[in-house]
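Recall that a protein's primary structure is simply its ordered list of amino acids. Everything else, from secondary elements to tertiary packing, is in principle encoded there. The following example makes that idea concrete.
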Amino acid sequence: MQWNEVTRIAVEGKIIAVKDAMILLSEDEDPRQWPAIRSDPGEYVFEVNVPTPFHAHRARIRKMGSAPELGKEIGAVDIDHAFLGIIDYETFLSAVKQDADAYSEWTATELDDELAINFSGAIDFNDATLLYVKSGDGDGRYPCFELVQDGVQVGMECIFIP
């Protein structure tokens, strides 16, 4: 399988989560509602598998330098706005808590505009980054799996097209 690197992100927190890119995080968010993994701080690579132009079959985030294998299913993500989002959960939630009104406005304007013109990429809200990719055929429920190397979680992968 061929992976295309979209970007890299410096993860500062201890949780990486996937979610519908357009669904707002609330200030009292429970991370257990989203598929997530425990992560070590460091640099991570965001990659997509796109066998045909502009049609992602898979998306993953993995620790830089890792060569992971697909592990067990850790949940499923419901997409209702056609885009998967990946966040450094604690860092992103901290930015939301600093100004929830600005986050709501950013989602409805800057993020919405970004997703309307790009297939995949990264966009910042304050000092927090949201990675995104159009999810396969768009809306749906997609399984997410841990990525492991030598028995240790080093990332996660969501499958849009089996």
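The two ends are 12 Å apart (CA to CA). The mean pLDDT is 94.
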